């Protein structure tokens, strides 16, 4: 402790010395910096301009005075104004710039004072000159009048005196313009002669006229001599020379100041360099001392660090073991998550299969009323919406674990787009939205990519546009990119190795704010408009983006609030030669046509429906027996094996998750039997995971279908494997029938009903109350059935606006 105190005592004087030196150095630096500051260029320029202006004023004044001496020149008032302007310009120079020191300012002020006194004396001479000049002009203007008086008046004095006066006046007129000194002597002698003659003739009656002539003659000679004397004293050019000297002195002072500034700057730089060198030296010394101390400290801690390294190594090994255990636990958790999602998929999709299937059957039943059919359709649409939400969540989970792959096939792009347009057009028309599909003429008809994912992308984007657009239009644009061309005259067209296909969906909706753009493609995130609508899960756009990236493109968006949005992307497609027969051989059954039987003279095919859920088995029995198949049911895999052996079905619809023996094991056992190899087994599963498809097919199943399925899809699969064609219910041209019914609708056709009834119909249509409208339609008499059918068709297509147009005349 004492050593530490001694060291502090030793260092204290040195610290004070450094503090004093630092303070002095700061003051010196402040002085040098202040002296190094540049001059105020603007003020320096303005003051120099003031000097130039004063010189111009003096030069102009000198020219005007010379004109006044030798010619008429300026008037007295004009010259007085010019003198005041010149004095003001000289007085303005008294405000010398502050960047000049006191001595320099005193020198300039002294010169200005001298110039001011000189200018004052010159100004007084100029005023005296102007006054004499004015009086001379007055006399010169009066002399011609005197001469005229002598010429026209009858003079009573002698002839010699009269001639002398006339000569005097004539010489005075000439002298006013010539200013000849010799003429002055002649005039003086004539004045003397006139005076002597007037003494001899002192009774002259015109004595006043003679006196005026003598008076003006003396005045002209006297004023001319004064003006000539003043002209000799005027030296305005000297004032200009003095201002030139003043300007040179000012510029010399500026130059000296700038030189001194440069010198101070040089000293400032040198002083800074000295300070930097001193600081660098101190830093280097401190670094040397610090390095020595660090070396000693490092040497002292080496052994301790080695011990710590050994301990840390042991800890790292333990940490690695814990990390490996956590990784294994995470993998197990991921597997558990996959199992949970598979179970949830099965548990959710199985009841949905029954709901959607039975509602489809009920919709086709012609015995139910329109109100009940509408209720069933609502249940079906709600089930489809629930299925979409489940599929979105499962798709997102598969994307997160990287289990999404492309299932590329050849398909007809035009047919796919037409089916999407037909599916969405009714909804667009019900909302008074114009739905347009703008397809470029050169886009290929057949492409090779994942049809399901491309279809889902387009439906999701158009569905969002329909959801948030309340008026205007929605446009889907499809076109080729770059220089790709299609040979329209050959269906088996050939492209280059790859080509781009551009899709865009543009709407006139509310638009998306800029601050919400970043979260637009995030899973489970919704925009403000989406949250207000309270629809969806916020997964649609995220899934679309992942699908587009998987196809080699990027989903982008441009939006203006209040004007609408445009979503666009481009996918890369492989070039393939498409066999058109493959397209037609894989055609789907038209869902608008009802299958009523099996075509041709065929035996009754046996189909075994295997499912542990009785509702699912009942649905399969109803669908298949109506067509003409013989159906037997099995509740588990054990029963399926037993029935197969005793009944010998032609095709088996096998659920994969069942108690006792599941579908995988039952399929293996049936396929292992002699006849089982030729028996078609189509797997029915509620799982949405693609990897299960591989497992199912590897178990021996011939094909794969997911629940819930559509009736047309099921019958198409069965027809494909049993090689059979179907008979379809005879259908009426619905479109032409509807058009005929609409043509019959008019205000005249509605006139058969009472105005009170039409007013009630108008009010119900204005409230979009379909139930009340249908109730009112039941009041239409039987003989006007076509009128009722036409109005009912408008209700089914959500065209209450047409009903309002037909009934508005009543209101």
TrEMBL record:
This is Circadian input-output histidine kinase CikA. Its EC number is 2.7.13.3. One of its GO terms (cellular component) is membrane. Residues 44-96, 302-333 form a coiled coil. The modification 4-aspartylphosphate is found at residue 655. It comes from the Bacteria. The chain crosses the membrane at residues 15-33, 266-284. Keywords: ATP-binding, Coiled coil, Kinase, Membrane, Nucleotide-binding, Phosphoprotein, Transferase, Transmembrane, Transmembrane helix, Two-component regulatory system. It holds the Pfam family HATPase_c. It catalyses: ATP + protein L-histidine = ADP + protein N-phospho-L-histidine. GO terms for molecular function: ATP binding; phosphorelay sensor kinase activity. Its main location: membrane. Residues 343-575 form the Histidine kinase domain. Residues 606-722 form the Response regulatory domain. PROSITE patterns: HIS_KIN (PS50109), RESPONSE_REGULATORY (PS50110). InterPro entries: CheY-like_superfamily (IPR011006), DAHL (IPR045812), HATPase_C_sf (IPR036890), HATPase_dom (IPR003594), His_kinase_dom (IPR005467), HisK_dim/P_dom (IPR003661), HisK_dim/P_sf (IPR036097), Sig_transdc_His_kin-like_C (IPR004358). It is found in: Membrane. In the N-terminal section; belongs to the phytochrome family.
